[in-house]
Amino acid sequence: MNNSQHELSAIDREYHRIILGYCKGNQDITLQLKSVLGKLSDQLISPYVKGLPKEDKKRLGNLCELLIKLYQDCKAGDKEKQHALTLNEKALWLSSKANGRYYYPYYEQIGSFDHMESVGNLALVDIRDIKGAFELCQGTFPTCSFVCALQSLIYYMNPDQFVSNLIQNCSGGTFLVVFYFNGTRRSCIVDSSTSIGQVGSITNPNLKWPALIEKAFLQIYNCQVPQLFSGSNFANDCYLLSGFVPEYISINKLTEEKMNQIFDAYVNKHTALVALGTGELSLDAMKQTHLLPFHDYIVEKLEKNNHNYTFTLRNPSKPKIHAFTYAFSKVCRFFQTLYMNWNTDKLFRFKTNVVFVGSHNHKFNNESCIENPQFVVKANPHGSKRETWILVEEHLKKDTDETLDSKIQSIRWFEGDKWVWGPNSGLLIATFNSNGTRFILSKVWLPKTGSLTGVIEIKRDLGDSFVYSVNCYSNFPAFLSRPIRDAFSVQFDSLWTMTESGGNWTKNTYLNNPQFEVFCDEGTFVVNCTIGIFTQKDIHINAAIFDNDFSEFKCLASFDERLLVAGQPTEYRPGYEIFSVSLQPRKSYVIVCSTYDSNTLEEFRLRVKCDHHLTVKRISTSLGVFEERKKRTLSELQNDSWNNAYCFMLRRSSKVALKVRFSTYIREIQLINKDTMKTMFDEINVKHKTVFLGSQKHSIPSGMYVLRVKAQNSKESIEIGATLGTDYRVELLPMD
Known about the structure:
It holds the Pfam family Peptidase_C2. InterPro entries: Calpain_III_sf, PalB/RIM13, Papain-like_cys_pep_sf, Peptidase_C2_calpain_cat. GO terms for molecular function: calcium-dependent cysteine-type endopeptidase activity. This is Cysteine protease RIM13. This protein has 5 domains: about 5-90; about 245-345, Cysteine proteinases (Cathepsin B, Chain A, Alpha-Beta Complex), CATH 3.90.70; about 350-480, Jelly Rolls (Sandwich), CATH 2.60.120.380; about 490-620, Jelly Rolls (Sandwich); about 625-735, Jelly Rolls, CATH 2.60.120.380. The chain is elongated. It is an alpha+beta fold and about 725 residues long. The longest helix has 22 residues, at about 5-25. α6 packs across α9 (about 235-240). It has 12 helices and 40 strands.
């Protein structure tokens, strides 16, 4: 390798690191860019570069153009930035690390100038040689799915074009393999060494480029010992090699209608590739069929005779054995999965790709989906439904991980473009379950409104975030985005404690639960409001909203079912509850969050969203600026006369709020002015053991006041606990 090759190789590696730094927002890359541009300018006039083919010179020019745009962006202010890369392009660059290595997005107009020292005897291999490419044979490595996919693609596509798009000779014993993963085509650089046991051709022992592709394939999965590779599957590997969209069909779900669709796509329209995979097989089944367990087989031919289908299969590990045929009934007995990979270029005119970041950090383990990763597929409204395919690809981990297991369990589709809180909070269109791989393909029909929200269900036992790409295929312009948030949304994290856990509304202690004030600030229109309460899945909870506009208290002072806002559920549900109500403008409401069991002490989250602005705030348990608490026992009571309990003196006017708890039921309670004997506040026919009396909104004048009660039964003793809230410090005194 000459000096110019060394220099270009160093530039290639450095510019990738610089772009990655640019995408991370690093501010110190300007000098690096300037240095690389200077080195590149020197190389453009070197004898080596002058002797390069025209195509290579053009690629160097394209690299210069990109680096200049990045340099100008770094030097410009925020308003002058040209944004050399879009946000999604930056996200794809930031997704370059997989299993401990970097695999940068492949720019066809730039290619690669990375060179390694020649190792072994492959530096002189002509990758344009396709002799024997139709007779590939799996070696001793457990890569049957990879060989199946590679062989099927060679059958399907123009071999010369397919190979030239997949692998390039960078000279000097270096090869560039281009794979589809982590949202885009990515560059994988390998040297020219191979090992015994790799894929080869049974008719051309000198055909070595398949082994280089296999080497790059194993490198992506960080497989240090190829013989111990945990395996993949045909659909995954076919996507990796070609970008053809994977679909996994369980054999036991193959209906006649589905087989007709597969036959039409594979045989008539040539829009898909097909392969079969076995699962676990008994020894008797293996002896009877000569099939291998957990093994993929190439489908060379699919034939139809009336309603009967026949598969012609080939084992990638035993190519010398002639292809064998299986009737559909036999396929159903011994195979587990039918793989399809769709050439979407033949099916759709538009493709959209967006990278998202999802999180596993669910605060609660309930069945709601408000914290699940979500995205929206949207198009202009149309008079009819339109078919759309959406492929979700979970990116490979940045750190070392040979497992291919998926974190995604399913995707549920709801009509509309709003954030979905729960499985019953929107119109469910369809559900697509994962087969354990990193891909889920959804075939859906956009409704006339033009939008669907996809809700991803993930494994709850994983705490880190993950990155995934969403690819949308359609015959009309479609867009991908996050769901729309409502005009107003608020969230409170709180908990039920020893003093604030009153249980369900049949209990006398219900008013001790956490409460929240809701006030419709503006407008003259009805406010559509959605309320959700969330906690752990085994706890039965309820959020109830009451009309509190005429109450003298900010909190709910008495339970009255007539004050419940219409349209809300009354039962207690496990884990979460979501409902929608209509609120009147310029009115005050109270939300009470309760558990069914008053002994439950747990965290919860309250969310409120609506189409207009609301004021929502936690109601303090304090009755006033100052509080005074006293307990006492009243004995020898008479049920037909008043019994004085407490008194207090107001030196000046003040708001007075009392919360009185009784050990048993009473008939009546009053607060009177001792001097004038005027009744200030009273409650007749008391129904609860806790009574709120007074007002947090209006003041009463100075003077001596007496709190008195009437008992239900004569000669009964009652324990009384009273809390007095006022604007300034007032002493609450027992009174005989």
